Amino acid sequence: MSTRHRPARFTALLVTTREGAVLLTQGGPRPGDLPHSRIRTHENPYSAARRLAAGLNLSLAETTLLAVDEAEGCNGPQTVHVMSARLSPGSAPPSAGHCLTPVGQATAAMTPSAASRLKAVCRATILNTMSPTRQEPLRLVEGRNLLQHATKAERTRSRFTWHPGLTPPEEIPVQQTWGWLVDPHGRVLVMLDRHGVPSLPGGRPEAGESPCETLAREAEEEVQARLSTPYPLGYQQVREHGRPPYAQLRMAALLRGLDSAAPDRDTGEKYQRVLIPARQANLLLGWGPEGDAQAHAVSRIWPPRTTRPAQYVPETGLEFTEE
């Protein structure tokens, strides 16, 4: 049988940090990509991952197959097996030629297909760590999960500009207010819709509402959250094709409690709720450099006093006490 059109097989390693960074290549033919290596004859993706890790001076405690991506490479079709690599305690720094980069900054510098792949596998590795059973690997085509619905930003090809600590000028209308809601352990609340698309609680203001009132109402309706007084972080200017620019306010507030999950009164949808350390939140959200900056700002305002991993919020909710 001819092997001329058989896809080349690669293993790529996803290494993430508690600060929300990912390990990327520097220099070479594919700078700014995940560390990768061609799978040799008689190797499988796991053995190739161990060989790749040894070459990077990384000591792996565990590897998990996150995704298989069918893509078009420089020299024809290729199949990329993306492995999540958990480092052993005390693992040495990576070898020269690689660097740790905030995930939003990384996706902004990548090709669209590589950025889509990175967002998909970062999201998968966070969700896998919270699941009691091992999840099936994603099936990607050119980095896209064909079973995953695109976000509004992806559908409209929106462009964002983050303005920390500022309020929008009068000529830019405020159309949405979203909140970074933080528990006593420095984790933020992320909501997942029925398609698994992550977001923060928030929405459009109603007539006569202040931004604080909008966020409190939306947080109660969408994720059944009770908040302290919100703190303004800044605003994000949004540009979409065919419409004037508008502003999304970003606020932060401490969580007082989460009541039992209930359907959103507007959409009828019951969202799944996740608590994730603020610095790691953009691994799940995939919001580009703007998400990096907002997550970093939240972690500076409310630095974690204890270390708690990401977790799903129980259907019955949670109560929080100051520690």
UniProtKB/TrEMBL annotation:
Domain of life: Bacteria
Xref: InterPro entries: NUDIX_hydrolase-like_dom_sf, NUDIX_hydrolase_dom
Pfam (any one): NUDIX
SUPFAM superfamilies hit by this protein: Nudix
Transmembrane segments: none
Domain Nudix hydrolase: 165-298
Record's protein name: Nudix hydrolase domain-containing protein
Organism: Streptomyces globosus
Lineage: Bacteria, Bacillati, Actinomycetota, Actinomycetes, Kitasatosporales
